[in-house]
From TrEMBL:
Belongs to the CAPAB/TerDEXZ family. This is TerD family protein. The keyword Chaperone does not apply. It comes from Mucilaginibacter mali. Signal peptide: none annotated. It holds the Pfam family TerD.
C-alpha cells in the first residue's frame, strides 16, 4: 500500500518499513489536479450541467541536478518546424518543449493542456537505476501556463497530487495538496524531489509555492 506523505516527509523509494521492495528500473512520477468548479459545483451541479469548468494549462517540469545541486547542461537553442525558437532544448530541464533527456533515461510523456480526465494529468518517467551518477537529484515543479495573465493560481486548484509508481505498477508514495487561501496568487509549485542517498533513492514531499508562472525564474537557484 502506498504511503501518503505529509509536507517535508522523506521516504526510501526502494523499500518501505514493511519490507516491501520496489523496482526502480523505471519509475513514473505522476502529477494530477482538479480545478475548483465555479457556480453550481458539487456532484449534482456537475450532473445537471450547472458547473462551469475552466481550462487550466498546468505543466510538469523536471530539473536534473548534479551533486552540487546545479543544472550542468542548460541545453541549446532550437528552431522548430513552426519557425519558433525554443530554448533549453536537450538540456537537463525536462519540459513541454524538451520532453526527452538526451540520455533517454527521463522523459515527459505529453503536454496535457486542459487537466481533463481522471488519474495522472502529466507524467515524467525516469529510469532511476540507469541514471548516470552525475545526476544526484531531480526536482519536480508544476507551473500554470500564463497563470498571471489569466488570474489562475493554486488557490483555485484542488485534489492536486504527486505520486511515484514503480515499474511493476505499484504505487510507492503519494503526496496530496489541496488549494486554499495560502496558495492564492501562487502560480507554480515545487511538489517534490528525488535524490540519491546511501546507494538508493529517496523521495521528499516539498509543496513549496511560488508566485511566478514562469518556471525559468525558478532556475536561478540551480545555476
Amino acid at each position: 500500500m502506498a504511503i501518503n506523505l505529509t509536507k517535508g516527509q522523506t521516504i526510501d523509494l526502494r523499500k518501505n518499513d514493511k519490507g516491501e521492495t520496489f523496482d526502480l528500473s523505471q519509475v513514473t512520477i505522476g502529477l494530477g489536479w482538479d480545478v475548483r468548479q465555479k457556480g453550481g459545483g458539487g456532484f449534482l451541479g456537475k450532473l445537471f450541467g450547472g458547473a462551469q469548468e475552466e481550462e487550466y494549462d498546468l505543466d510538469a517540469i523536471g530539473f536534473l541536478l548534479n551533486e552540487q545541486g546545479k543544472i550542468a547542461n542548460m541545453g541549446r537553442q532550437f528552431t522548430n518546424s513552426n519557425g519558433r525558437q525554443v530554448n533549453m532544448y536537450e538540456g537537463d530541464v525536462i519540459y513541454f518543449n524538451s520532453m526527452r533527456h538526451p540520455s533517454g533515461h527521463i522523459w515527459l510523456t505529453g503536454d496535457n493542456r486542459t487537466g481533463a480526465g481522471d488519474g495522472d494529468d502529466e507524467q515524467i518517467i525516469v529510469k532511476l537505476d540507469s541514471l548516470a551518477p552525475t545526476f544526484d537529484r531531480i526536482v519536480f515543479v508544476v507551473s500554470i501556463y500564463q497563470g498571471r495573465k489569466n488570474n489562475q493560481h493554486f488557490g483555485m486548484i484542488e485534489n492536486a497530487f504527486i505520486r511515484a509508481v514503480d515499474r511493476s505498477g505499484k504505487e510507492i508514495a503519494r503526496f496530496s495538496l489541496s488549494g486554499d487561501a495560502t496558495f492564492n496568487g501562487m502560480c507554480s509549485m515545487t511538489f517534490a524531489e528525488v535524490y540519491r542517498k546511501d546507494g538508493t533513492w529517496k523521495f521528499r514531499a516539498l509543496g513549496e509555492p511560488h508566485p511566478t508562472d514562469n518556471f525559468v525564474e525558478l532556475l536561478g537557484k540551480y545555476r
